[in-house]
Amino acid sequence: MTESYVRTTCPRDCYDSCGIRVVLKDGEIDRVTGDGDHPANRGSLCGKCTLAYNGVWRDPAARLTTPLRRSGPKGSGAFEEISWDEALGDIARHLGRLIDDERRHDILTAHYTGTCSALANQFPMRFFNHIGAREVEPDSICNLSGHVALGYVLGESATGFDPRTARDSSCLVVWGANPSASGPHADKHWLAEFPGTLIVIDPISTPTAKRADIHLRPFPGTDSALAFGLLHALRATGRLDEAFIAAHTTGFEALAPLIEAWSPARAAEATGVPAADIERAAAAYGAGPAMLWLGQALCRAPTGGNAFRAAAMLPALTGNIGKPGSGLCFLNGKGTTRGVDMGYVGRADLRRHQAAPLSHMDLRAHLETAPPDTALLLWNINIAASNPDQQRLLAALRSEELFTVVADLFMTDSARHADIVLPAASFLEFDDLVGSYFHLSLGAQSKAAEPPGQALPNQEIFRRLATAMGLDEPALYESDADILDHLLAPFDFDFAELKAQGTIYPSPEPVVLWSDLAFPTPSGRIELASAAAEADGHPRTPQPDPLPRPAPDMLRLLTPASEWHMNSSYDNEARIRARTDPATVTLHPDDARALGLATGATARVWNETGELAMAVAVDALTPKGVAWAPKGRWPGHAAEGLNVNALNPGLRSDMGDSTALHGVDVRVAAVTL
User: Fold this and answer.
1) What phi and psi, each to the nearest 5 degrees, are found at residue 379?
2) How far apart are alpha carbons 388 and 200 in whole angstroms?
3) Distance (Å, whole) CA 349 – CA 465
4) Are 46 and 207 within 8 A, CB to CB?
């Protein structure tokens, strides 16, 4: 047999954007492996991708291969095969009636990070912008509060630091991120090779935290108090950069009294972090140059936006931004850090009929009260698994009047509630562009196989739908190749060269972001006190006040990513489910003892929103007062038909109308038979 390989890039919602070698035998995929020449993953893939990409992703029996029309009750999984012409015709007629009746805002579209490749992630928005559909705000299910918060401080949120400048750093703080699960190769290589002091701030003793030089474990919701305790210690030891503050920030005079009031001892009382550890971490960070990695878990709390603003004060007041080995990174956008014209892909300028975005926190209630023939089109997302108030959402999706269309690779729980299901191609089956939201690289997503059956890439699905609706806007039909040429026009390489190399850094040398210290805020400086925030109803400065602790008979529920799931991806891979079944809640030994629970027992976990039966694990990796139950499971795989989002009432953060799921409290008790 003749063996060859294709280089491609993993487009999952992960910091790594790993390089992949797809090994072909006689032109057919034999196996999917890591690319040994890729700088991030260096030849290996994480366990979940290794299993899924060599399992369900390539199994025609597991994939959707033909358009389907519902033939039984919503949620029953009863469908009949139809042609693309029939499917698109049904959709076009329904959307056309709503547009003709001046009800285009009753066309809802929800999407997110099922794939993060540029075209498949954004091109469909050309269609929805053009017809004037109402978008469900993507980031409201994830991290919008962090984006809003950093907008107040820095003017934008998608310019961080170049990880390659870590060689010049003496300290790295990882706050609210768990790279061992959400960036496993950044954890395995980049963090392991960091030359200075590694500080991890996380309530959970994750594998990353266990390797840290200093691990601070604030109780969930107390991060802002910890930030002010760190700032107090920095000021007390003369570590604030007064010249930088005077030249490049505004509002210190409003912030200073709050810093003075929150000593490490006071912060320790609020957070549970010993004062000596706060002082030790402040000394390491203040020695500089220092880097701050703000993870997405930090902003998923009722005071998450405030916590982000408070944490951002550390680099602002110590001058740890705009120089090698320093900076603050939430996300690195392809446009802000590499000059890729991502706005061209989705073309917001095509929108002629404005509609305020709908938060995912409001989607369930909106569907319950919307006109009965509302249309809901889902792509790159599985709301039945990922959205709050799950029981009521599933009930809303079962409405026979709601017209639901789902484009996906698999028959997800959301697809089971659809009227029309459209089979989507996987990343192995079409060309696209991938840009890491951590590393400043660009990677080719290269076609290695034909899609199974009649499956199509997202962008081709919506080109064909535009044709079925008789739309004449040329941008709706632009080819993938032409868009890729446009995106790569600023660079000295084209897509063919990118495919040959797999991944290219547009700048071969490390980049110092914010080196000009020019910030797109109203003042042009870092805004410690923000009039824009105040105008939006927030305090002028970040506040140190911690979120109240749970009631005495309740535990704070944390539902982060695990090493085996990514959002709701991978739960349909049998070898992954064998490693993750049953759904488990982990309790601190003291809490388990008080509740009369031991490892292996079954617990009832409930609050006013919902109830689940979960297996119990007892481990001090979870702090007292906290229940830890990672997300990612498909509801339909559980006996109750629910996952942990059945316990999430849809709490929203202080900023951005965004999720605050890490403020959910639950009761836990032994199941009595």
Assistant:
1) -150, 145
2) 29
3) 20
4) no
d(Cα 400, Cα 409) in Å, to the nearest integer? 24
Q: Look up residue 361 and give its two tokens.
A: 């926190």
CA distance 560 to 13: 14
Find, among 638, 518, 626, 595, the residue nearest to 222 by Cα: 626
Candidates 245, 375, 253; CA nearest to 317 is 245
3-state secondary structure of 603: strand
pLDDT, position 77: 93
Distance from chain centroid for Cα 520 = 24
Q: Buried b / exposed e across 305-321, counting CB within 10 Å, b at 16+?
A: bbbbbbbbbbbbbbbbb
Length of the chain: 673
- 3-state DSSP call for residue 307? helix
Q: Do β-strands 107-111 and 375-379 pair in parallel, antiparallel, or remain unpaired? A: parallel
In this structure, how many other beta carbons lie within 10 angstroms of the beta carbon of residue 168? 16
Amino acid at 38: H
Residues near 438 by beta carbon (within 8 Å), at least 6 away in sequence:
15, 16, 17, 160, 163, 183, 186, 329, 331, 332
- Count Cα atoms within 13 angstroms, Cβ side, for 245: 17
HEC-encoded secondary structure of 80-106: EECCHHHHHHHHHHHHHHHHHCCCHHH
Instruction: Provide the CA 43 distance to its chain's centre, in angstroms.
Output: 25
Split at pLDDT 50, 70, 90, the class of 673 is low
Across 447-465, average pLDDT: 98
pLDDT digit string, tens, across residues 653-672: 999 999 999 999 999 999 97
Q: Are 366 and 358 a contacting pair, CB within 8 Å?
A: yes
Residue 8 tokens, joined: 């491609």
Q: Give the predicted TM-score (pTM) of the model.
A: 0.97
- Percentage above 90 pLDDT, the chain: 99
- Which of the 8 DSSP states describes residue 171? E
Contact 199, 173 (CB under 8 A): yes
Residue 363 backbone phi and psi in degrees, to 5: -60, -45
**What pLDDT is stored for residue 672 in this prediction?**
78
Q: From CA 377, how far away is CA 200, in angstroms rounded?
A: 40
Q: Report whether pLDDT(628) > 90.
A: yes
Token couple for 442: 């660009």
- Are 145 and 171 in contact by the 8 Å Cβ rule? The answer is no
φ, ψ for residue 191, nearest 5 deg: -70, -40
Q: How far apart are CA 205 and CA 558, in angstroms?
A: 13
Distances in Å between the Cα of 510 and the Cα atoms of 116, 261, 323, 507, 623 are 24, 39, 11, 7, 38
Burial (0-12, 13-18, 19+ Cβ within 10 Å), 630: buried
What pairs with residue 370 in β-bridges?
none
Structure tokens at 389: 């108030």
- The SS3 of residue 56 is helix
Half-sphere exposure (CA, 13 Å, Cβ side) for 70? 24
For residue 74, give Cα distances in angstroms to 95, 568, 618, 646: 20, 21, 39, 19
> Residue 514: its pLDDT value, please?
98
Residue 514 φ/ψ region, left for φ over 0, alpha for ψ in the -120 to 50 degree band, beta for the rest: left
Phi, psi values for residue 264, rounded to 5°: -55, -35
Nearest to 111 by CA among 358, 479, 426, 403: 358
